[in-house]
Design goal:
The protein is mainly beta. The chain is built from 5 helices and 18 strands. Strands 1, 2, 3, 4, 5, 6, 7, 8 and 9 form a 9-stranded antiparallel beta sheet that branches.
Length: 308
């Protein structure tokens, strides 16, 4: 069995699959990739199921030593990636022989890349998932980020006939506009709050992580206070605490929350939000439910190469 051995871990490199879905009602967090689209694309490029466990690389990439032969591909953020010092083409499969060093180097755009390996990373699962949730320490490697010396076994993968036509996600350049629909607590906010949310520009603050982005911008006013009885929090929901400064909940979000929610980023635009870094701007554009569904169909068509 082939393996990847961590020589340098990078800033925050974690094992992720599509997440631990189906257990949030029991208090089990979902986790999974910040950019679901690029995770699926990287896996498709090497012939894996889209849910296969892969590495999510954040801002500064790792250096990995190959034991056995592996076929890899990266999608998402644009990193200079080398095998034994030679650049490999982005968003295309490449082979690394035993003893090779894969280095994910200079980042040029975006925040997070997925590196998939043919066969997928063969690590223990928890509740049917190999996703890493950092806060609860759930997932492979005791639920933590990679460290030097970690060995990541690779499952034996078939050699597929690859004919992948998926389009790469366009990376944000300093910020992004994402579409939103009203959340269940929209009526707990003033009309002015909704107008501000959908017309102002917010900044992703340094107090942001995989759990969520704390945003800075015009305050959003509640009608009768921020607190609610705790209830389920979906990915992409925008919570508003008493300060009025919104929080965009992301992959490692808590299962429940006690602040009113004003809007949800649509599923099609979550991958774009997942590529933002502290200091980037974000703008929210109001969207009808029908348009959100149409956008998701277009996103899946771009992933599979299907005609629309």
């Amino acid at each position: 069995m082939a393996s990847l051995v961590v020589a340098r871990a990078g800033m925050l490199t974690t094992v992720q699959d599509r997440g631990r879905w189906g257990y949030q009602g029991l208090g089990v967090p979902v986790a999974g990739p910040m950019d679901w689209y690029s995770h699926a694309l990287a896996n498709r490029l090497v012939g894996n199921d889209e849910n296969a466990a892969a590495l999510e690389v954040t801002l500064i990439g790792p250096e990995l030593i190959v034991e056995g032969e592996v076929v890899c591909a990266l999608a998402g953020a644009d990193f200079d990636t080398t095998v034994n010092g030679s650049l490999v083409p982005p968003r295309r499969p490449f082979t690394a022989l035993s003893g090779s060093r894969i280095r994910i180097g200079t980042r040029r755009a975006g925040a997070r890349a997925t590196m998939a390996v043919r066969g997928g990373l063969d690590l223990p699962s928890t509740f049917g998932s190999r996703a890493t949730h950092l806060v609860s320490h759930m997932g492979p490697l005791d639920g933590r980020a990679l460290q030097p010396g970690d060995r990541l076994p690779v499952a034996s993968g078939r050699t597929p006939s690859l004919d992948v036509h998926g389009m790469p996600l366009e990376m944000p350049q300093g910020g992004a506009r994402v579409r939103v629909v009203p959340a269940v607590h929209r009526e707990r906010f003033t009309g002015q709050a909704w107008h501000r949310l959908t017309s102002a520009r917010y900044t992703v603050t340094p107090q942001s992580n995989r759990m969520g982005y704390r945003l800075e911008g015009p305050a959003l006013s509640h009608v009768a206070g921020a607190d609610i009885l705790s209830e389920a929090m979906p990915i992409g929901v925008i919570q508003v605490p008493p300060s009025g400064q919104p929080i965009l909940l992301m992959a490692d979000r808590q299962t429940t929350g006690g602040y009113a929610t004003i809007a949800n980023v649509i599923t099609a635009d979550l991958p774009v939000a997942g590529q933002l870094v502290p200091g980037d701007w974000i703008e929210f554009v109001a969207c009808a439910r029908e348009d959100a569904l149409a956008a998701l169909r277009l996103r899946h068509a771009a992933l599979t190469g299907a005609r629309t």
